[in-house]
Design brief:
InterPro entries: Rcf3
Shape: rod-shaped
Strand content: 5-15%
Keywords: Glycoprotein, Membrane, Transmembrane, Transmembrane helix
Main location: membrane
Membrane topology: Single-pass membrane protein
Number of domains: 1
Structural class: mainly alpha
Order of helices and strands: EHHHE
Subcellular location: Membrane
Helix content: over 70%
Largest sheet: 2 strands, antiparallel
Number of strands: 2
């Protein structure tokens, strides 16, 4: 499959870094969700007669919901940070290429700076 062009964000190094960051953020979010679910469950058990009378399955669902919600929200927040940093670095790289080309007397179109790479 020679000649396939893939965007730079398919770079294995970038994908590995993103996977690591999202995994760490998900674990932190899950821990925060667990702390919140435990604290709120204790308060609900103390003050809510409805919560005291629900079955174990409902309580487990309540805890799982908070844990997963914490993990998802934290991972999404980390993804947005990663994208912002990635595009900022990409913009700096493009500006550097444009400046170097201008110093040499070459004037490149912004389209020619696409950060695509070909796979061989």
């Amino acid at each position: 499959m020679g000649g396939n062009v893939l965007p730079i964000h398919y770079d294995p190094k970038t994908v590995k870094q993103l996977t690591k960051e999202i995994t760490v953020a998900s674990c932190i979010g899950a821990a925060q969700g667990a702390l919140f679910s435990i604290a709120s469950a204790l308060l609900l058990r103390r003050f809510s007669s409805v919560y005291r009378n629900v079955r174990t399955q409902v309580r487990v669902f309540y805890h799982c919901s908070w844990i997963s919600m914490g993990a998802v929200f934290r991972a999404d927040k980390q993804l947005l940070k990663f994208q912002t940093n990635y595009y900022r670095e990409e913009q700096k790289r493009r500006e550097k290429i444009m400046d170097e080309a201008a110093e040499r007397g070459l004037f490149l179109e912004d389209e020619s700076l696409n950060s695509s790479r070909s796979t061989t």
